[in-house]
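sorry for the late reply, my laptop died twice this morning and i had to redo everyting from scratch. anyway the thing you sent over, i finally got around to it. pasting the sequence first so we're on the same page, its 240 residues, then the predicted structure underneath. double check i copied it right bc i was rushing
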Amino acid sequence: MANNLLSPLPLLLIFFLHSPTVSAQPPAAAPAPPGPPNITAILEKAGHFSKLIRLLKHTQMDDRIYKELNNTEEGLTVFAPNDKAFTDVEKRRLIKSFSELQRIQLLQYHVVPTLIPFSEFQTLGNPVNTEAGSNTDDQFPLNVTTSEDQVNVTTGVVNTTVSSTVYIDDKLAVYEVDKVLLPLHFFPATSAPAPAPANPEKKALPQPEISAAMAVTRREPELERVMLFALQFLFFQYFL
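ok and here's the structure:
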């Protein structure tokens, strides 16, 4: 009886001695959160934005946008002019005439410091704030209006429409436009001409000079009338 109870023990001992050791593994580390979207990579993937990409890199605005997306909770909205839009501006040699500061401000004027889904354009208040600065009438005003499914963008210098949505997530929205948004601040109005006086004084017309000969000629008829009157008086005195 005792032998029957103890007989399985050697088998169990052999099993435990030869079984592989199972050690507890630490839980796998959670993947790192993805970084903010890269504006130049987005534009390169979309195509026909090579001139905008070149200007973003030249002014280092691509790095600034990346850092802002990494630090902001509000997100960003970018109006992206396509290559044709820049070609039209280059024909007028405007970009080359801008200073480095103006080129940065030009790009900042295309960036709204909040995420705007397409459906929310109709709720925007005007003028819209951009990263270029003040939105007063003589600085960087930007007006966005909607008509049915069309979004219109007006700067005071150019009018254009949003032609497509290039990219959108919870941090960044990129919309294609067919014209470069030229700010009013870069094109100050020429000074208006001075208003005319309410009652302008009329200048007297110059009188022609009268020569001595003409003066004598003008006096002759008067002498004749005086002499005729004197003769008539004498006639009546002596003959009547």
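The chain has a mean pLDDT of 79.
thats about all i looked at so far, will dig more tmrw
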